[in-house]
Design brief:
The complex is a heterodimer of chains A (254) and B (290). Chain A is α/β, with parallel strands linked by helices and 254 residues long. Chain A folds into 2 domains: 139 residues, P-loop containing nucleotide triphosphate hydrolases (Rossmann fold), CATH 3.40.50.300; 81 residues, no CATH class. Chain A contains 10 helices and 9 strands. In chain A, strand 6, helix 6 and strand 7 form a beta-alpha-beta unit. In chain A, helix 4 crosses helix 5 and helix 5 packs parallel to helix 6. The longest helix of chain A is centred in the last third of the chain and has 16 residues. Chain A starts with 10 loop residues before the first strand and ends with a helix. Chain B is an all-alpha fold and 290 residues long. Chain B has one domain: ABC transporter involved in vitamin B12 uptake, BtuC (Orthogonal Bundle). Chain B contains 16 helices and no strands. The longest helix of chain B has 27 residues. Chain B is globular and about 60 Å long. The N terminus of chain B is likely disordered. Classes of the chains: A alpha/beta (254), B mainly alpha (290). At the A-B interface, helix 2 and strand 5 of A face helix 10, helix 11 and helix 14 of B.
Chain lengths: 254, 290
């Protein structure tokens, strides 16, 4: 029998459970991802997608199970800046008085001194990241004055500046323009080639087929997990969405 | 320059300065206003106005007990301020009652306890000065306490300025990159309690929440940069304090109320005429004349 080398997995979540004051949000969930893999996280609202993200980042504590990030604890992953979280647009206060530059600089906070004084290398990382998402013309623009797509790119740049090896993206394609969508999908290919691991939640089934090597269907627990081509079937999708047929959800088979 | 040499305005400014208690009041109130104004930008962005109200009212029994026991009143106030927050958190977690209801019932309970205690402990506690502030009657020991607490809060906020901004903006990211969010949460609460303690000297328990939210709200309407927001908040708080004290001196008005009214007027001015976010959008009006 082959022994599992946990170092091989970027993310290894084993039978994790999360409950909020006794209310179960997620139970017995498993996920294993290797470097360079892109995995789609699909489920209804309230199925536990955000909870799954929160567990991986350590924002909520798991009540059961084990999470290893690069073979280590979530705590040391936080210290090593291993995981970057890209929130959905609704998840942040767009009226907060802060510029693109300052948001992206927040990606560097974890590796700065206590006063968060940017070093030369931090400034360079922020510059490069903003360039990669094509926002160099908006360095000092307040985020309130950006379009939905530009705001999404700002938070992507923050993740890039952080130099994380794992990216968690909550609905990266919702509410963005075509230009941003194209830019994000190009970045995904670059990330994959750089060996980064990506877990993204999405409502859009076309994006799953297009980008995701793997798919994780959840409804409080894992309904199905595996290669997109094998697992992303109408039957599994129906189960995930509580018995509603995929025809009804996405129109007749495209 | 001509205005300054104008006799009545000149004496309007300088006459009060001949009184020792006025110089002290102007200095201390400005300091307190600056501290509350600094904190104010965080509280308004975090959406903690109600929390500020709760903490500032909850310090009441602490002040009374400390006076009765001869302890520094700031100590009692601080314990009850933080205690109220802990109690709010506990009740919220252990019951199905909604958070704003819990906050409301806890702080009114604490406040009522304070009033009952004052009526029972027949000492030289001046209920009026606790409720409405007494910037004109600050004692030397009060000055020392206020200086110490103000300095402490300013140092804490300055060191953790950026972390607190991140905590208010995106706590999930803070946690993800290994920043101690738990610590920041309680740091902000501690600063809130301490600011409430010094603020109540100026304007009293009932109105101290205004010192903690109005300057921040005013600044929020005037800028899109966080550092500028803090600066404007502090400045508007100091200016309101000076205006309030002068006006109350010359027209014999309640000082605490005058300071808060001055803040409210500055807010209303920003609300109406802020360049970008005001009702009348001055920027656009001027652009029309060009």
């Amino acid at each position: 029998m082959e022994t599992i080398n946990y170092q091989n997995f970027r993310i290894d979540a084993e039978n994790i459970c999360v409950d909020y004051n006794g209310k179960v949000a997620l139970y017995d969930a498993n996920l294993r991802l290797k470097p360079g893999q892109i995995c789609g996280l699909v489920g209804m609202n309230g199925a536990g997608k955000t909870t799954f993200f929160n567990a991986l980042t350590g924002f909520v504590n798991i009540s059961k199970g084990k999470i290893r990030i690069n073979g280590e604890s979530v705590r040391s992953a936080q210290k090593d800046q291993t995981i970057a979280y890209v929130p959905q647009n609704e998840g942040i206060d767009s009226q907060f008085p802060i510029s693109v530059w300052d948001v992206v600089m927040m990606g560097r906070y974890g590796s700065m001194n206590i006063f968060r004084c940017p070093r030369e290398s931090d400034v360079q990382a922020v510059k490069d990241a903003i360039e990669r998402v094509d926002l160099t013309d908006h360095l000092s623009t307040p985020i309130g004055n950006l379009s939905g797509g530009q705001r999404k790119r700002t938070f992507l740049a923050r993740a890039i500046a952080q130099r994380a090896s794992i990216l968690l993206l909550d609905e990266p394609f919702s509410g963005v323009d075509i230009r941003t969508e194209k830019l994000i999908s190009e970045l995904f290919i670059q990330f994959k080639n750089e060996g980064k691991t990506i877990l993204l939640s999405t409502h859009d089934m076309i994006h799953v087929r297009e980008f995701c090597d793997l798919v994780l269907l959840i409804n409080k627990t894992v309904v199905a997990y595996g290669e997109t081509s094998e697992v992303f079937t109408p039957e599994n999708i129906t189960t995930t969405f509580g018995g509603i047929s995929p025809d009804f959800l996405f129109g007749p088979e495209s | 320059m001509e205005l300054c040499s104008f006799l009545t305005l000149d004496s309007f400014i300088t006459d009060p300065l001949t009184h020792d208690f006025m110089r002290k009041a102007l200095l201390m109130s400005s300091l307190v206003a600056a501290v509350c104004g600094f904190l104010s930008s965080y509280l308004t962005l975090k959406g903690w106005a109600l929390m500020g109200d709760a903490v500032s009212h909850s310090v009441m029994p602490g002040v009374v007990v400390a006076y009765a026991l001869g302890l520094p009143f700031s100590l009692g106030a601080f314990i009850f301020g933080v205690g109220s927050v802990a109690l709010i958190g506990f009740i919220k977690q252990k019951s199905r009652v909604k958070e704003d209801t819990v906050i409301g019932l806890v702080f009114t309970g604490f406040f009522a306890l304070g009033i009952v205690l004052v009526s029972k402990i027949k000492s030289n506690i001046d209920l009026h000065s606790i409720l409405f502030g007494s910037p004109l009657g600050i004692s030397l020991s009060d000055v020392k306490q206020t200086l110490f607490i103000s300095l402490l809060v300013v140092i804490l906020l300055s060191i953790f300025r950026k972390d607190l901004m991140l905590y208010c903006f995106d706590p999930r990211h803070a946690k993800t990159v290994g920043i101690n969010v738990f610590f920041l949460h309680y740091l902000l609460l501690t600063c809130l309690s301490l600011a409430a303690v010094v603020g109540l000297q100026s304007v009293g328990i009932i109105l101290v929440v205004a010192m903690l939210i109005t300057p921040g709200a005013t600044a929020y309407l005037l800028t899109d940069k966080f550092d500028n927001m803090t600066l404007i908040s502090v400045l508007s708080a100091i200016i309101s304090s000076l205006i309030g004290i002068y006006v109350s001196f010359w027209f014999d008005l309640e000082t605490g109320g005058s300071i808060v009214l001055a803040q409210t007027f500055i807010f209303l001015f920003a609300f109406l005429f802020a360049p970008r976010y005001g009702i009348f959008k001055l920027k656009k009006l001027f652009a029309g004349y060009k």
